[in-house]
Amino acid sequence: MKNKKILPMPVLILIAAILGTAVLGEGGYIAAKKIEKYKDKIILQENILKYALDALSAQQKELEKIKEDLNIAQKGLDKKKSAAVESARKAQEESAQNKISALEEKISQTKTYSLSSIISDWRPLIANVECQFRYSDTGRLYQKSSGSGIAIKFENTPSAILTNKHVLTDSNGYGADSCSAKLLDSDETLSSSDIRSSAKEYDLGYIYINNPSDYFKNLTSNFPALCSQKPSLGDEIVVLGYPSIGSKNGLTATEGIVSGFDGNHFITSAKVEQGNSGGAAILLKDNCLLGIPTFVTLGKVESLARILDIWTAVEK
After folding, report:
1. Fewer CB atoms near the end CB (10 Å): N or C, the chain?
2. CATH annotation of 123-315
3. Which portions of this protein are annotated as coiled-coil regions (predicted)?
4. How far apart are CA 157 and CA 314, in angstroms?
């Protein structure tokens, strides 16, 4: 058996070196390629990240722009809303004011109509009264008095002109010998010597008409309507009569309110003067006879006059 030939050591070392270099060279190439690919991947990721950041920044700016536009739009909307609210408020105020004005005008017209119709209803009943005073022994006339009265007919009593006691008596308390009464819508002059004054302290008297005409009977059969309830403070009234201050030839009407109470009297702000005392005080809300104006000083105007409750006259 032949022995194998073994290469010398130097040759083996050289071959090993060549093989090692080849292996190392291939490994380095592969490593370099891997590194290059990794770098490309890193660069790509960086580019993607940069793009994403740029897109996010752009979106952020767009969002801020949208928010700014929204703020501007909101301010404009708030301004328009405020203007609309103010316009609506002014429109409501104007509408309310128009309604108030219309209501006031309606009330004024209603009041004017009511007052006018009430005066028209009651004026035929208001009498202009004149009384004569004579000495009992000689019959000589020594005094005349005048005032207002109202035609009335209480149940179970004669027809009468209701007036004030001070119209029917002189300063010494002596009664008139005769009185005459003239109604506005009649040519008739009512005369009577049947004159009676209240025995109480009330300023109240009666001129009885014992033979009344048909006109007088019809007049008093329909009117007057007496107030069935006490008035309230502030209720409106009208006083009808023939005052010495005012119309000399016709009826006058003075308005006022019930401003207080004093026993059987109502205190009123309506002007009551010597001439129109004894006339009629009409409660406007119920169109009824409240009472007889009284408690005045001859020839002078009281700022707060009194009205005697009509039921005092009924009860005497």
Report:
1. N
2. 2.40.10.120
3. 49-83
4. 10
Alpha-carbon span 53 to 59, nearest angstrom: 10
Place of tokens 């008596």: 169
Nearest to 277 by CA among 218, 175, 202: 202
Note the pLDDT tens digit of each residue in 265-307.
Answer: 999 988 887 667 788 999 999 999 999 998 655 444 445 789 9
pLDDT, position 255: 92
* CB proximity list for 216: less than 8 A, separation 6 or greater: 151, 159, 183, 186, 188, 190, 209
CA distance 21 to 64: 63
Residues of the chain falling short of pLDDT 70 = 1-29, 31-32, 96, 100-113, 223, 244-249, 274-275, 295-303, 315-316
pLDDT score, position 22: 55
pLDDT at 16: 63
3-class SS string, the chain = CCCCCCCCHHHHHHHHHHHHHHHHHHHHHHHHHHHHHHHHHHHHHHHHHHHHHHHHHHHHHHHHHHHHHHHHHHHHHHHHHHHHHHHHHHHHHHHHHHHHHHHHHHHHHHHHHHHHHHHHHHHHHEEEEEEEEECCCCCCEEEEEEEEEEEECCCCCCEEEEECHHHHECCCCCECCEEEEEECCCCCEEEECCEEECCCCCCCEEEEECCCCHHHHHHHHHCCCECCCCCCCCCEEEEEECCCCCCCCCCEEEEEEEEEEECCEEEECCCECCCCCCCEEEECCCCEEEEEEECCCCCCCECCEEEEEHHHHHHC
